[in-house]
Request: fold
Amino acid sequence: MPLIKSSYQAPFLFKNGHFNTVYKTLFYKNTINYTRKRIYTPDNDFLDLDFSTVGSETMVIAMHGLEGSSQSNYIISVVNYLNSKKIDCLAVNFRGCSGEDNNQLYSYNSGKTDDLGTIITYLLESYNYKNIVLLGYSMGGNITLKYLGETTTINSKIKGAIAVSVPCDLKGSSYALASWNNSIYMTKFLKTLKEKTLFKMEKFPQNTIDSYKVQNANSFEDFDNAVTAPLFGYKNAEDYWTTCSSKQFIPSINKPTLLINALDDSFLSKSCYPISEAENNSNFNLELPKHGGHVGFNTSVFGKDVLWSENRILSFINHIIYN
Reply:
């Protein structure tokens, strides 16, 4: 499908992509009351799912980005907004992200779609929703797109998906984040990733992870070579990135899907804008706002935010359910 012309117009301050990126994290102060349900995985682990329901026939499964959780401000924002529009939400906590460490030495990665499959199976078996929509941000968006493209049989209750700020080429994104202008983000990501890994190494003393390589990792390439690849059975970071990048799965997506990637998103490389894939798949809609940052798309610095991305998500949900 041809590219969608975006309606997002960034106010002056939000034309700075970095300010747009950090605004919700620093200044969004809304709260939410979830009901938590713990489900168990085939490999003797667990996933904590946070529900916020209003009695709808439609359920949105919202997935956070790297080192995020159901408490991430962008997740709280979209869940509160969709609840206000009478739509139920399930906010996923990927393994080790719910405030409690998971049971296995490994936790999650950008291509680990089997846990999403487990969540969907649980939802279908335990609830009677008429419509299910997938919503993924950043890493959660990569998981969403990969799942849709690699899964041969998808339940008819899953009507479609929205993905926001997705590093659909993991190699390109990893190199983009390693650049000097993203050093503050890289430092923040690596801090918590290293802390979690070192804790895991103490919890599982028989592990074969090289602690020196972990402590001295300065990029995702370093970390993925030292931790992600060996834990999940990949040869190295390159093999992990190649296998798990969602871009290659987009041609096989057969459910209505919207990807919103801002052109000024410093987390993304040029290869993270799947233009030809969109032009050759009628189910895949690509929207490339000029501004927006990474999971930003803010519209107001003072006063009530218009919540452009939340409204755009609602619009696409209504489109795929009622058209």
In short: Strands lie at 35-40, 46-52, 58-63, 88-93, 131-137, 158-164, 257-260, 284-287. The chain has a mean pLDDT of 96. Residues 12-169+250-322 form a domain with the Rossmann fold fold (CATH 3.40.50.1820). Residues 183-203 form the longest helix (21 residues).
